[in-house]
Amino acid sequence: MASRKSPLFDTATTVGKIMSFLGVSALCGLLAAGLIFPLAATGGAAAAAGSDILDELPTELHEEPLSTPSRIYANDGETELATFYAENREPVGIDEISQDMQDAMVAIEDERFYEHGGVDARGVTRAAVHNFTSSSEQGASTITMQYVNNVLVNAAYLRGESRLTISGTGEKTYADKLQEMRLAVSVENEMTKEEILEGYLNIVLLGGRNYGVEAAAQYYWGVPASELDIQRSAVLAGMVQSPNGYNPEVNPEASQTRRDVVLDAMLRTDKITEEEHEEAVAVDVADDLEINPEEAGCVSADMAHYFCDYVEEVILSDDTFGPDRGSREELLNRGGLRIVTTLDPGAQQAAEEEAREAVPADDPQAVGTALSTVEPGTGNIVAMAQNTNYDPDAEGTGNTTINFNADFDYGNSGGFAAGSTLKPFVAAAYVEEGGAMDDEIDASEDHYPQYDSWDAHCLPNGTATVLDDDGWSIDNVADDAEREMTVDYGLYYSVNTATAATAKGGDLCTITELTDRLDIHHAYSGAGLDPSNPSFVLGAEEVAPLNLAAAYAAFAADGEYCSPRAISEVTDTHGNEYEIAEPNCEQVLDEDIVAQVNDSMINIAEGQIANNDPNFPMAGKTGTNDTASSTWFMGFSRGLSTAAWVGRYDSNEQLYNRTIAGEHYEEFYGSTIAGPMWLDYMNTVAEDYSTEDFPEADDSPFSDRRDMSRYAGDGGGGEGGGDADDDD
Hints:
- The protein is of the alpha+beta class.
- The chain contains 23 helices and 23 strands.
- A hairpin with a 5-residue loop joins strand 19 (619-624) and strand 20.
């Protein structure tokens, strides 16, 4: 990790000064002791006790970060996605705080602020005499002392001590007061009065989770601190004594009574005139409120809720941001991080609109939709959307915080059966072993008996075996598909027996080694595909849309695979940068092999999905699992790879013979809703990225890569040339 200063809150005028204290001499400590123990001179024992206390007090205020909100942004660095905070604080300079606010705080909390040196001897003596002669207690903390106490309490919290006051008892001891005084004198020696007041006005609690006058002004009235008038300034200043007791939102009557006390103090100290006093007193506190709550976390995001959730989990899982999950969460909620992500806000908006238009969130069939887009060559996540509502508290159809696009560890989804989206990888492995897309294969075999063996060099004895008692039976949707055909033809029409024959003619471990290089894995366990059961080649395993989008991006990038990447930059409040990984890319497939497989996928996307009228060069593959509860279109241009998924997220019930989004479907495949959803979305966003044509293979067996006549003849696919799979 790059070296960083502690991300202590600072502003233009207080940078580095707030915590740069050199301590104070014993003389100052003894002076403080004399002030708070005015009777010490009358008893040697008491004097000795006071001296012992002073010896144990620190002379330096230890540096710890103050809590400031962290914010997540889209890739433009300007579109804010969400804010995270434990303390809602927006630090500002003293010149951004109205003079009325400054005057109100000084008048009620420390009217001799500009005259004393951190400890007000007159005030301490008055309070001491009162406390020794009365049953009630009176405080004498200056603004500087209160500032010191706030800083110490914050530091104790961040060290895990969770102390309410310096002593941790909830009530200040004499030692606490002495420590405040000793450090307050140091503060006054190191900082100007304006810097001290600025620091105090930015750290003080002002009701709820609002800290500092800027956040409070925005919350209660929707104005910046620079525009706080006399009345509102008095309300905030009055809250210091009891932040929640005098909270105008919770207790407006008590707040108004306390406000009037502050206004009287401002009048008495000549900060306002009689006329201004009367005008301010006449304002009804409750009527003047305009509450503007700023919710924390992804639930408050205006867009990209599920992507926000994904980014949060990335932060909490990365030791770049702390040694354990708890410390990372503290950093996110208190560290004032600026997190710039890879998300394209325009693409995200389009993805959300298409995902919800394809199937509304409240569709009674509980059908989910998802779109994940990554950029080939970088792995940057460009968009991540689904049709459901992100609401942790809501129940019922269409409301969930489960991220359909991500693995379980990053979104609590177990993934969805990949179906025929796995078939291009089977074809690529076949070509990698020396085959060709125009090789003839025998797709007539639709049953493999128990104990039938398949080459698998990575397994014991070098074979995989069909273990089911009844063997492995394979169905095709299309009639007359069980015959000889080319690998290309079988992939185009998604013929299950053709894919099985392609795998049978090669080595199952070659296929899984290829999918491992592309990091295709189970969404729940994270494990790679298992070659011990030959049926994996038809996509029975559950994978995440984001995982497949990244794998297919390698077909768009001439065989270069890049790990999905959500964050591009993280800085703290000082501008110190965290070390964020650059794109992690590796050439994992031969360019010529990719080009050969792409020849087939170009015709699938442009012929089947775009009806031979594509707006840009495109390629892809449909997919449907055996129960038609999970359907896909995995498609890409040169600049974007997008997974489009439509299916059940609450069960494995089939989607055919049902009414979905107001339309009845007798059949349901990847080309039914997922394909059109992908096309509508990509037609909107593809032109913002590269739409160059795909490279042709050096030794392509096809003279014209877009020659659709090679798929003519009897046999062929269901769905009018669409996805003809019925995967096991």
